[in-house]
Design brief:
By secondary structure, the protein is mostly helical. About 70% of the residues lie in helices and about 0% in strands. It is built from 28 helices and two strands. A two-stranded antiparallel sheet has the order 1-2. Helix 20 packs parallel to helix 22. The chain is elongated.
């Protein structure tokens, strides 16, 4: 076989191997479900994304749902619904395929960049190792195994593809189609997730090294350098517009002060580098502490590390320009997620490394290849293979953490038992399993950790109400509303208890308030309908059950209570249909089964009376 034929064969087999290893490492995600960590709000309780019709597309392109403008991500999720319905395995498969495609693109990007400093087989093998370090690292699991993070894997594919197109354009600068493609792919990345805005800075770093189009002998403001800046200007304009839009979409909460932001940012950078090196003790949530003391040891360590890292990259920029470029790219890409603008309750998150990871992967791959000067190639290859195998094993294990809500929150509590969010979320899981006593313990622990956490009081109210302690439950709901006046779940739950106590009019006022806060609260519509049935207004109640099912078609309680309302009017045929619909949605719905039996018996009696 000639060298040319071997090269062509390798050009197919190597990326195919990268794809296959990536797929195998993440196979457990196909058995994962939706979890009660934003998946419920994004998919389970959100019918607005389901499909690709005009109404869904309008919503996708106009919504800032949960603080994000990600229309292309929503479109892929709408396609998932068309293909899989509400089967989570299909959504996970799409995530996995997108990530696998990103791994292959990262391989080609790394190969092109490595070719500037390595030749032939060295560039190909080093690029493959870099792509696998990125792809099968357990820090990627959160982005792949969490359906909500479709925006990570989709934006990542566009982001890396834009870099590849830009590099292809530099290889054939007379063909501007590659430049247009790079710009279009960047726009697609931004429409998938706003954190892609760092791409212009990454392209600038690449132009410095390894392309050497600016800086060094070319200079920083020569005619050639100015042409590079002009080429990057459209990318910068798109990034700036997205940055402004993301602030509008995010509605950032009360911020830490400046010293705390710096402390959290430095700690996060250290955290990401350390977890890249030693990816153990990973968790779906690293909760922001209740109080951030910038002088605490971990924040001081983060600051020292950050200063040392930047200084090392600067001082070694001439001797090891590749290492300095990788470090610079990693810092630049992670910067929007380091705590300058708070987005959510976390101090750091595994998913925040997704776009930045290839920079460290290329640095590690280059370092491993350099070891060939001191060790045999076989030993280096064996070492690289062991690393990939170890990371794949950790990824396989970490993927099972996202199996279901209980597994997920158990993992968070194993890593950090002081997470008030995890304690409260675990309580909600236990309430759904009817383990009320254990749930109440978790709710009380959440309140003990974070006395200002409204969701914990609401959860405790649910537990106490399940125990029949209505007065105590009302006190908890009222405390939740005192802490968070726009809290639709607390309003709805308070209405339930008041209705049970006989104050139906007051209950309706709370259901109405819940729907003012969140028009998509399907349960509040059901409970409002139930209240009207209690007031002997079953016909009026039906409109609320219809509304509840428009919001959440799989709401079994809406069908069941609609059936009750119809039965109250003697419409047993229609009632039976709704009881059966409720059972079809929830085979364990005991009340629907009981009412189906009663409605069937009443229908027979009705028919017998008519025959007489």
């Amino acid at each position: 076989m000639t060298a040319t034929r071997r090269g062509r064969r390798a050009s197919v087999l190597v990326p195919a191997g990268v794809a296959l290893i990536t797929l195998v490492a993440f196979l457990p995600v196909l058995h994962d479900g939706f979890v009660a960590w934003d998946d419920d709000k994004n998919f389970v309780d959100n019918p607005l994304y389901r499909g690709l019709g005009p109404a869904q597309l309008h919503w996708m392109w106009t919504t800032f749902h949960m603080g994000h403008y990600v229309p292309l991500s929503w479109m892929t999720l709408g396609l998932d619904y068309e293909l899989w319905g509400m089967n989570p395995s299909g959504y996970h498969l799409t995530n996995l395929l997108l990530h696998t495609a990103s791994a292959v693109v990262v391989y080609f990007v790394a190969r092109r960049l490595m070719a500037e400093v390595l030749v032939g087989r060295g560039a190909r093998l080093t690029a493959a190792f870099a792509a696998l370090l990125f792809a099968v690292h357990p820090l990627r699991v959160e982005s792949v195994a969490w359906v909500t993070e479709r925006r990570d894997v989709l934006s990542g594919l566009f982001y890396f593809s834009s870099i590849l197109a830009y590099l292809r354009w530099r290889d054939a600068s007379s063909n501007r189609r590659w430049y247009v493609a790079a710009l279009a792919l960047f726009a697609a990345a931004l429409l998938s997730k706003a954190t892609s805005m760092t791409l212009p800075a990454v392209l600038l770093i690449i132009d410095v090294y390894p392309l050497r189009r600016i800086g060094g002998a070319v200079g920083w403001w020569s005619a050639a350098a100015r042409r590079v800046y002009a080429e990057l200007a459209p990318f910068a304009v798109l990034a700036a517009g997205t940055a402004a839009l993301s602030i509008v979409a995010l509605h950032p909460p009360a911020q830490l002060d400046f010293s705390q932001k710096l402390a959290v940012s430095a700690y996060s950078l250290l955290f990401y580098v350390w977890k890249t090196i030693a990816p153990t003790g990973l968790s779906p949530l690293y909760e922001m502490p209740q109080h951030v003391d910038a002088t605490a040891a971990r924040y001081v360590a983060g600051s020292v590390f950050t200063v040392a890292l930047v200084a090392a990259a600067w001082l070694t920029r001439r001797r090891w320009p590749g290492a300095s470029a990788c470090v610079a790219a990693f810092v630049v890409v992670t910067m929007p997620m380091l705590g300058v603008v708070q987005n959510g309750p976390q101090i750091s998150a595994d998913r925040y490394t997704y776009l930045a990871a290839p920079a460290l992967a290329m640095l590690a791959a280059g370092a491993l290849w350099s070891a060939v000067r001191f060790l045999s190639p076989q030993l280096v290859a064996t070492g690289g293979s062991i690393i990939v195998l170890a990371l794949s094993s950790l990824t396989w294990s970490q993927s099972t953490v996202w199996r279901d809500s209980k597994t997920l929150w158990s993992r968070v509590l194993d890593v950090d038992s002081t997470s008030s969010i995890a304690q409260s979320a675990m309580a909600n899981v236990l309430y759904r399993e009817n383990d009320v006593d254990a749930g109440i313990e978790h709710s009380r622990r959440a309140i003990e950790i974070a006395p200002g956490y409204a969701e914990a009081y609401n959860g405790l109210g649910v537990g106490l109400a399940r125990q029949g302690k209505d007065t105590d439950a009302i006190a908890q709901y009222e405390k939740a509303l005192e802490l968070k006046p726009v809290f639709d779940d607390a309003e709805n739950n308070l209405g339930i208890v008041l209705a049970r106590q006989g104050d139906v009019t007051a209950a309706i006022q709370h259901y109405e308030r819940a729907l003012e806060i969140n028009p998509g609260n399907s349960d509040a519509q059901v409970n409002w309908g139930n209240a009207l049935v209690r007031l002997n207004r079953p016909q009026d109640a039906i409109a609320h059950y219809e509304a509840a099912l428009r919001l959440r078609p799989e709401n079994a309680d809406a069908h069941h209570n609609w059936g009750v309302a119809l039965a109250r009017q003697g419409k047993f045929d229609e009632a039976i249909d709704h009881f059966r619909a409720a059972i079809a949605l929830d085979s364990a719905h005991v009340e629907a089964k009981e009412y189906l039996t009663r409605a069937t018996a009443l229908k027979r009696q009705q028919e017998e009376r008519l025959r007489r």
